[in-house]
Amino acid sequence: MPQELTLMAVHAHPDDEVLGTGGVLARYAAEGIRTVLVTCTNGEQGDDAGGRKPGDPGHDADGVARRRLAELAESAGHLAIGHVELLGHRDSGMVGWSGNDDPAAFANVPLEDAVAPLVALMEKYRPQVVVTYDEDGGYGHPDHIMAHRIAVAAAERCGVPDKLYYTAIPRSGVRRMIEGARELGIDLGFEPPDDFGTPDELVTTTVDVLAHAERKFKALEAHASQGENIFILKMPEDVRPFVLGQESFVRRFSRVPVPEDLEDDLFAGLR
Questions:
Q1: Between β-strands 129-132 and 163-168, what pairing exists: parallel, antiparallel or unpaired?
Q2: In the list 6, 68, 118, 144, which could disulfide-bond 43, CB 3.0-4.6 Å?
């Protein structure tokens, strides 16, 4: 019998699943394709219910993890993700945070120990398509970089996926977003450097997920504990589709023929 089409997304923290891959997860689930989300850490390095920051005295890391995993379950429901797999590693925190020094932090786990469970999941679900971050983890977060490392290593070791992709934010899209926000008087809370995002010429694949933009927004809302860091939640309703309606990727490899032009389907060559 033909093997069931399956998409697997490998992410670092609860909430990472939404912005770069929430649309493809929702779209392909709606098409009847099996979707699998692998979340590597429990997200302990967030503010706790009392407003204490990671590293502050009395910070309730376990309480943060419980809340963020509950939010993840709600988000997965909005995106109709079929299977959520938790690797259970400890959140390392941003570069320079005290959590970086924890031997149990995801970024400090020996690569072999971190790769083996992901190999087992790839062999279990047999995904034709796997999506993760690029070599820099998108913006240099230690856990994103580690997620990239184990996803690439697992895919190469088990030989299961036919296609491997990295999430991408085209630089032209970043510029349009910043310009649009300024015109609307929206403070994004950060000023990306000129080299932020993926050079447009490296983008191989852009998928239309406009029909699922509202699902993505609801999934973002589900991560309420991270709300102050999610600038899209501050945007007017009529602007959201322009930000949430497309997702772009860089194809790392493909074992099947792919279009010479820009791809519009992660499963091109597999259907």
A1: parallel
A2: 68
How does pLDDT run across 215-232, given as a tens digit for each residue?
999 999 999 998 777 777
Q: Which two tokens stand for residue 98?
A: 């005290």
Backbone φ, ψ for residue 98 (5° rounding) = -65, -25
State the pTM of this model. 0.93
Three-class SS state of 20: coil
* Residues 211, 244: Cα–Cα separation, whole Å: 10
Please give the average per-residue pLDDT across 62-83, as a whole number.
Answer: 97
**Using an 8 Å Cβ cutoff, are 127 and 8 in contact?**
yes
Say how far apart CA 32 and CA 22 lie, in whole Å: 16
- CA torsion sign for 210, 212, 213, 216 is negative
Rounded distance between C-alpha atoms, residue 105 and residue 35, angstroms:
27
- Beta pairing, strands 129-132 & 205-208: unpaired
